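Researcher: Quick one. two chains, 536 residues in total.
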Amino acid sequence: MTGRWQKRLADAAIPVAIMIAFLAGWEAVVAFGWVRPIQVPPPSRIVASAGELALDGFPAGTLLGEHVGITFLRILTGYALALALAIPLGLLIGSNRTLDAATAPIVTFCRSVATLSLLPLAVVWFGVGEASKVFLIGYGCFWVMLSNTIAAIKLVDPVLISAARTMDTPPPDIFLKVVLPAALPRMVAGARVALGVGFMVIVGAEMIGTTRGLGALIMEARTFYRSDITVVGMFVIGAIGLALSYGLTRAEAWLLPWERRMHERRP
Amino acid sequence: MRKPVRLDSPVIEIIDVSKRFQTEAATEVNVLDRINLSIRENEFVVLLGRSGCGKTTLLNVIAGLTPVGDGEVRVNGERVTGPGKGKGMVFQQNALFPWLTAKRNIAFAAVNRGLSRKQADDLAGDLLELVDLAGAGDKYPFELSGGMQQRVAIARALALDPKILLMDEPFGALDELTRNEMQDELLRVWSARRKTLVFVTHSIWEGLMLADRVIVMSPRPGRIVLERRIELPRPRSRTDLLLLATYDEIWAALDRKAVTATPAKKVAS
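Model:
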């Protein structure tokens, strides 16, 4: 038991040491005046700004927790709407050859359009309020989830369907009890990628019409020449993304206990 | 030991079955060319041939997974129009549902023929015992070796309580030792649960060790070129002189046909 912990500590020691050296070096180059704090805010400044943001807020009165909360709400709303539309539609298109051939160019085209290039249109359609932000996040997530769901259904091994047919499985059950579970691992992976897209879109989506949210925070900081706040905003987005991705991976392992097979068998 | 066989009523009748596939080069391939074959109740028939000789296509046509081109296939006197209905099938590999445990894979088949969950579970337990996997019921397929997976696949096919069992190179992906072990295992299971069994392989020895009758097929066009009945008791010895002679005979039939096989004809249009 202790041996294992010792080994874990030893394994962690080198990355931690590298991290400390990196932060110290970063602090030093600013302290020696080689780069200006506005270009690269030093770690000490970033920590102080994070404290300021959490307690006093930036812009005045808007605390860090509030930024995080509103951003979370926007991403989750857009993401949930996207999944609610993309999954049924993807299941339908994926299981119908004709429909798939007809829609394939549209899906690829729309997925290739950079989500943020729709910002001006989104404002015209939905105004500068919440709706346009949710729309942009939803748009980004939707096409990723749709194309992943279609691919997941199409890539189901035909031998599984043949096997089900030789076992007198009624057609609805072939879809519900065979195709769907067989496609599930790829769909879950798609859902994880789609969530990542939501986080990539958020800064742009919050660029206009609001001072609340992590994206807005980053844009506001720019106006006030507060690079330190920008870095805090970036860091918080990264940390949330990391935490969610980790959580989803754990949820996947719990939800799909057989999926280890994919990693073991498929390169 | 075997039940008396009624020669007048074959379980599987393959009558003048032909099947053509269109290839990309706009040529037509005669995968099956006027195949006629009758299989009696509880007979163990091995379809043997090189890759591409149509043996798997013939099996799929019997299973109802591939529609018959010309001619017809009858099982118990009824024309085959689709899969299922008492025709169990074991595939080469990876046909178990990876999201279900071994036991649930077997129960899946049982539930489909109207058994309650409880009955299906009991049956799955019995069948796991039959294939020597009593302790592995709660394991997922990825946790089982290739040989164990195929044992589960056999148990799953048996859970349908099928009249006939179709096996498509079920041991083809296994190493030789496991393969020999599985052949013994299959014979043991088959003697416990008599079925009409059609077994596809490209291994001559597998055919010789297992079959009541070996059907040798030639590729393009897929035709039956040799039929040999093997009336030796099982388990059989690999050094049995009759088997060795039959081996040579089959090998000669495979060899000759590979050389003289007619080329695929061009499509007129």
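DSSP finds eleven helices and no strands in chain A.
Researcher: Thanks, that's what I needed.
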